[in-house]
Specification:
With 310 residues, this protein is of the alpha+beta class. The chain is 15% helix and 31% strand. The protein has 5 helices and 16 strands. Strands 2-3-4-1-5-8-7-6 form an 8-stranded mixed beta sheet, covered by helices on one side. An 8-stranded mixed beta sheet has the order 10-11-12-9-13-16-15-14. A hairpin with a 6-residue loop joins strand 11 (199-203) and strand 12 (210-215). The radius of gyration is 19 Å and the shape is globular.
Length: 310
């Protein structure tokens, strides 16, 4: 859940920082692990993620009340029951895969970032830890188990989560963490008008998946605006599945009668020049089907890194 703003460079709370490498290098952050969302009705969410999206049901080793919907061995959507104090928030956290969770935890401590005293060890053999970004969003870093089972999701339109998006007030403040400390790399930015930045895409340091800042007015760290609706927030806090052809994926979902959820009803070309199609879970979290490559010239800025691939 969103929490109050933490300092951009906060104390390590007297935690000792063991050595993790002579050069102090940051362990690799290879891509997106998952997005964790809340549901008011777990059964309705299950129908959407498993029957309509086509993800594979799996037990949640972190929460007995939760459910995972796998797209591949290391990427999934986690659905949790809505907490009593959530308000309109439906995002618990976003997560990224790393080659070494404990080394990354220690690396953050050396940079003055508040991190837990140790990593958590999951029942599935994974290792992970969570921190807050400068605006209070919860971010998890996951070292997947070497024995993670293969996942076959033939009914899903795609099996690669290529980006996640979160509500952001200040691009500059968030960059102090994602870019300056973690090494996320610019990919693209744009807006509904050419002279306004609404979206900022930052690729993971050692892969091509990206985080999208969904820019919103208001002071940094102020959380969800009081006048924002559940519907609007669900558009901002979202995830995207990459596909080779959005029109073909749209037709496949329609032909198999898997479009009884709220959706945009048609495909479109986004301002980044990529074809897309939006579907929404029962609580409004947006799932965006997006082609890996642009078919038209993007507005506002050029792409500055390679696209993700299937």
């Amino acid at each position: 859940m969103r929490v109050s703003m933490i300092a951009v460079l906060c104390s390590a709370s007297l935690l000792a920082v063991p050595a993790f490498g002579q050069d102090g290098a940051r362990p690799k952050i290879t891509g997106i692990s998952h997005i964790s969302v809340y549901a008011t009705d777990m059964k309705a969410a299950d129908h959407y993620y498993a029957d309509e999206i086509g993800a594979v049901r799996a037990a949640d080793p972190e929460s007995a009340a939760g459910q995972r919907y796998m797209l591949n061995a290391t990427q999934f959507v986690e659905v949790l029951p809505l907490p009593a104090n959530a308000g309109i928030n439906r995002l618990d956290h976003t997560a990224y895969n790393t080659a070494d969770a404990d080394a990354l935890r220690k690396y953050l401590l050396t940079k003055g970032w508040k991190a837990p005293a140790k990593v958590a060890k999951g029942k599935d053999g994974s290792k992970s830890f969570r921190v807050n970004d400068p605006e209070g969003n919860v971010v998890e870093f996951v070292q997947p188990s070497l024995d993670a089972p293969r996942v076959n999701a033939p009914l899903a339109p795609g099996t690669h989560i290529i980006h996640v998006g979160i509500l952001v007030h200040s691009r500059e403040t968030e960059d102090t963490f994602y870019r300056a400390i973690l090494g996320f790399r610019p990919y693209w930015f744009g807006g509904m008008q050419d002279d306004k930045v609404d979206w900022v895409s930052q690729q993971t340091p050692d892969g091509h998946d990206w985080l999208e800042y969904m820019m919103t007015s208001g002071p940094s760290g102020s959380g969800i605006p009081k006048d924002m609706s559940l519907r609007t927030l669900g558009v901002l806090d979202h995830f995207s599945i990459g596909v080779t052809s959005v029109p073909e994926s749209f037709k496949m979902l329609g032909d198999s009668k898997r479009l009884d959820c709220r959706n945009d009803g048609k495909t479109q070309i986004g301002r980044d020049g990529k074809a897309q199609f939006n579907m929404y879970d029962p609580d409004g979290i947006r799932m965006e089907l997006m082609e890996f490559h642009a078919t038209e010239k993007p507005c506002c800025s050029a792409f500055t890194a390679e696209d993700p691939a299937e």
